[in-house]
User: What shape does this take?
Amino acid sequence: MLSNRVKNLQESATLKINATVNRMKQEGQSVYNLTAGEPDFPPPEAAKKAVIEAVEKNLSKYTPTPGLLELRDWIAKKTNEVQPALSHQPWKASNVIVTNGGKQAIFDCVLALIDRGDEVIIPAPFWLSYPEMVKAAEGTVKVIETSFELSYKMTAKQLEQAINPQTKLVILNSPSNPTGALYTEQEQKELGDVLARFPKVWVLSDEIYDRIDFEPGTWKSFLQVNPGLRERTITVNGLSKSGSMTGWRIGWSVTPDSLTPALIALQGHSTSGICSLAQAAAIATLKLPEGWFEHQRRQYLHRRDLTLEILRKSTKMKVLVAQGAFYLFIDVKAALREKENADGFAERVLRDIQVAVVSGVDFGAPTSVRISFATDEATLREACSRLVSYCN
Ligand SMILES: Cc1ncc(COP(=O)(O)O)c(C=O)c1O
Assistant: This one.
């Protein structure tokens, strides 16, 4: 009775492993959990206060579908700050739609652009929801394989070779979940130069980890580097990761005038505007000085280095040095058993040494696993030491 669209969808691997970890914890087992796809920091005090005030002021009515004007103004302003190359044609509130997390922004853009038969280019390893969203829109996923040696980044040549008359969209994600890879300005420019030659192809730049980069100044917004692609580039962002408020579901898209009305129509008939209280939190967070995010960035960097130092003691694990986000992507090929892939490895380490990692299979990387360093140092130390001894 289920539609083909839904029948083909896969349950999120990260949510599945989290359910197992929670069950084990409930049974009294101790688990070293490295699966978190969310910050372990609290949200900003200013955001909490804004929510309380909004409750007291009875801010309980429907908001406009794309979000409160004040919030959209702030989002446009913040986007313009990282895209000064577009100062001749800055984004306005009318280009912004506030969504239930970055996830809804991406899903709606895919639905709004993709018809059956359209191809979407996705470099692997990818965030596991991208292909499922394309499948839900009945589009075709074209995966571009990348390598550890090239820091899991798609080259301009690969992109050029993959584009064909069916190509409608390319999804880019920097800093990346799951690899922590970050495209340099030059690399983004090279991709943009290719795309400039294919005027029917759209770009979705998922910049949700933008404030979590480890070499200040290296991260650039895609449109800042490629302003000529303004009319066919979608910038997705949100406060789940940088604002540590995954549960408040605050994301957004910034899109050219040709796309925004369709997205508003789609959202108007599905979820409507996001929770009014979350919007109050979002305004308060966006008003914070950029320096507020520094503390977290430094903490993540410290944890990354600590984790790398331990993992490097293993001869069996190849770890990419993350340039951003809060993940390390580990090639465990040398530690796999015969005919085993990362699913088997992840099950084994959970069972044998009580360390929870996410298999790379659903990220398009069957011999790798992802660990998250968005957790406390004691857990990181113990879990990584266990992994190293086990693999060695
Ligand atoms: C790469 C990437 N994009 C988008 C999202 C969606 O984030 P949100 O929780 O705001 O929906 C995530 C969340 O894990 C992510 O990792």
The pocket of pyridoxal-5'-phosphate is lined by residues 37, 101-103, 127, 173, 177, 206, 208, 238, 240, 246, 251 (CB under 6 Å). The chain has a mean pLDDT of 96. The chain has two domains: 4-42+293-391, 45-289.
